[in-house]
Structures are given as structure tokens and as C-alpha cells.
Specification:
- With about 80 residues, the chain is mainly alpha-helical.
- About 75% of the residues lie in helices and about 0% in strands.
- Helix 1 crosses helix 2.
- It is elongated and about 55 Å long.
Length: about 80
């Protein structure tokens, strides 16, 4: 993380910005900084892509065959005996 105070402020606002849970003034601060700072813009893109990946992964069902294979690899559990 850079020691730039503007980057630190953007870091504080990033999750709220991604959640669309900031006051209008904070949105302007975050957007203004993201427009000018390559480091923070890359961080924002990473966080946004990670959230999309998690959302998609959580909504997709695992194929039954794969689930069975994973259960075999895991082996018997203490509560399954």
C-alpha cells in the first residue's frame, strides 16, 4: 500500500464504494481519486472482479459426480460413522 494520504482515504472508502453505500460526497472523493490513480484503480478492478467471481461461484451448483468424488477424497468423517 502506498503512503499517499489520498490513497489511504480511497482505501477506507473502497468497500463502501463497491457496495454503493457511501454518501454523495464520499462517492465524489472515491471517483475523483480512482480517475487519477492507477494503483487504486487497479485495486478497485481487482475487488470488483473478485466480488463477481464469488457471486457467480456461489450461485452455480456443483455437478453431482464432482460432489461425490470430493466426498470420496475427503473420506469418512467422525460424525458420519
Amino acid at each position: 500500500m502506498t503512503e499517499d494520504p489520498d490513497c489511504e482515504k480511497c482505501e477506507e472508502l473502497l468497500q463502501g464504494y463497491l457496495d454503493r453505500d457511501l454518501a454523495a460526497e464520499e462517492v465524489l472523493i472515491a471517483e475523483g481519486h480512482l480517475e487519477d490513480c492507477d494503483y487504486c484503480r487497479r485495486r478497485y478492478r481487482f475487488e470488483a472482479q473478485l466480488r463477481r467471481y464469488i457471486r457467480i461461484s456461489a450461485s452455480e451448483r456443483m455437478p453431482a459426480g464432482l460432489l461425490a468424488k470430493l466426498a470420496q477424497l475427503r473420506g469418512p468423517t467422525a460424525d458420519g460413522l
